[in-house]
Amino acid sequence: MANHLFAAIDVGSFELELGIYEISPKSGIRQIDHLRHVIALGRETYHTGKISYRLVDEMCRVLEDFSKVMKGYRVEDYWACATSAMREAVNNQIILDQIEVRTGIKVQIISNSEQRFLSYKAIAMKASEFEKIIQKGTAIADVGFGSTQLSLFDKDSLVTTQNIVPGVLKIRDILSTIQVNKTQEKSVVEEIIDHELIKFKKLYLRDRDIKHLIGVGDTIMILVRKASEGDAPDRMTREQFNQVYDQLMSLSASQIEDTFGVNEGFASILIPSAIIYNRILQMTGAEMVWTPGIRLCDGVVTEYAQQNRWLKFTHDFEEDMLAAARNTAKRYRCGNAHVLCVENMAARMFDAMKKYHGLAQRDRILLRIAAILYGCGKYVTMRNFADCSYNIIMSTEIIGLSQNERELVANVVRHYQDEYEYDEADIRTAKLTAMLRLAVALDVSYKQKLAGCRMGVRGDNLVISTEYPGDLSLEAMTVGVCAGFFEEIFGIQPMLKQKRRV
Questions:
Q1: Cα separations (Å) of 424 from 373, 385, 408, 418, 427?
Q2: DSSP structure class, residue 499
Q3: Sheet holding 107-109, edge to edge
């Protein structure tokens, strides 16, 4: 099969990056060129809330050069992503338009959960090491320029992922506003970090034994390289980290540049980054740090290759998304047998209706997430809980979901209970809402009477067949209540058929 040339562009908070990759279905992904340009987008956004025209002009000139490189390599396709600095800038839509008009490059702003999911996929490309490490308690610390993400694995399952503390640029900018010496700087940064880490520990680290920390980002790679001194350039023990950390904290800015081989810009962010990692290591008790050496561009090309089915993963990322939703449900005391039954019913209904709903396979995942989370608002109130569920979902980061997808799930959950208003939602939302309503109706008694039912479309009916021997009067009534809306959306009427055993 033919090889493919692809370009990935990261419009980050601290630099612009271009990666040129060769994708081969036989041999995988190989980076053939990599360009970087340091630019202080984050500094302006986090200080003023917007990006100045001076930086927009610089950004466009660099991206024009990237475009020429891409044409020189004759890349077949590209993805350009922007992260927190662009995401938080109030003038981001004007900037995106300027970039497209001047360079021809269309940049997409991605959510924090999408950004971390891409990095996570790039880590998983190192399949043998990744799968081996996450068999034991593992944390992924992605210390970025704008924010820090902490994810927990336990026995190959994603427990949670949380955006917990500011990134190194934000912390550096906080320090620039106050007059402190080196000792005070360390204390201030620790207090900023501990404020969030203590809450994270109480919520998610109870009785969890974390053995490994996977570190993502440039700064941790620099620290690992110095700690290992070439013995194992991608990992270090906790003791090795402590040694290099103590050394770093004793050096001046110019000494950091010489000792660690970095420029002035990186030297200024190395200390706050090291303090973040130090506090995470102390909180988790991890014994070993592994740095897979991935960047966001690596995640972008990995996602692109997977979508085109040129690469296959041994790790199930969809299950990670569902696991994150289930853990959220447990937090709100709704991760029970009923929710599992509703999720299963919704998925089977989606499959049975495949020829009639016209939805994508991605929508199946969104429907299952909606089924898992639809009742979380009952933790707040039993009456009109759907609005509370909506607010909880909109306030909860689910790894892998874009902002639009999270809003879709939240609207499906909200419309589950409310009267459906067509002017407020699109047909995709309506279809998923109709299926969720029917799935909940099939377990209205919370007794999983229809857990073993079969579903299939026959003529104008979705026939739900069961051999359950007991009383299904309540289920039949609620299915009847949902039938009108379901038929209105799909042109198919649900029918509950109880087969009596002889």
A1: 21, 19, 12, 12, 10
A2: P
A3: 28-38, 15-24, 4-11, 77-82, 107-109
- Give 333-398 as a DSSP string: T--SHHHHHHHHHHHHHHHHTHHHH---HHHHHHHHHHHHHTTGGGGT-SSSHHHHHHHHHHTS--
Q: What is the pLDDT of residues 259-275, one digit of tens each?
A: 888 888 788 889 889 99
Residues 147, 138 contacting (CB under 8 angstroms): no
For the record, the structure tokens of 67 come out as 């475009």
Q: What percent of the chain has pLDDT over 70?
A: 97
Instruction: Report the candidate in 224, 220, 229 with the shortest Cα–Cα distance to residue 270.
Output: 220
Q: Are 260 and 247 in contact (CB under 8 A)?
A: no
Q: Cα separation of 328 and 303, whole Å?
A: 25
Distance CA 86, CA 99 (A): 12
Extract the tokens encoding 48: 């003023």
**Straight-line distance from the first to the last Cα atom of the chain, in angstroms, rounded to the nearest whole number:** 57
Q: What's residue 231's pLDDT?
A: 63
Q: How many CA atoms lie within 13 A of 36 on its CB side?
A: 10
Whether pLDDT at 59 is above 90:
yes
pLDDT at 1 over 60: no
- Whether residue 7 contacts residue 13, with contact meaning beta carbons closer than 8 Å, is answered with no
DSSP letter at 399 equals T
Which amino acid belongs to residue 66? Answer: F
Residue 319 burial by Cβ neighbours in a 10 Å radius (0-12, 13-18, 19+): middle
Give φ, ψ of 42 to 5 degrees. Answer: -60, -40
Instruction: Report the b/e string of 230-243 with b at 16+ CB within 10 A.
Output: eeeebbbeeebbee
What confidence tens digit (pLDDT) does each residue in 271-289 have?
A: 889 999 999 999 999 999 9
Question: Quick check: 137 and 160 in contact, CB under 8 A?
Answer: no
The Cα 116–Cα 118 span in angstroms is 5
Mean pLDDT of 494-502: 80
Here the tokens at position 489 are 């959306």
The domains found in the chain, sorted by start residue, are 4-111 (3.30.420.40), 126-293 (3.30.420.150), 317-498 (1.10.3210.10)
Provide the 3-class DSSP secondary structure of residue 148.
strand
**Model confidence at 466, in pLDDT bands (50, 70, 90)?**
very high
Cα separations in angstroms, 56 against 69, 428, 449: 20, 37, 61
Cβ atoms 472, 444 nearer than 8 A: no
Model's pTM, two decimal places? 0.84
Percent of the chain with pLDDT over 90: 54
C-beta separation of 213 from 139 below 8 A = yes
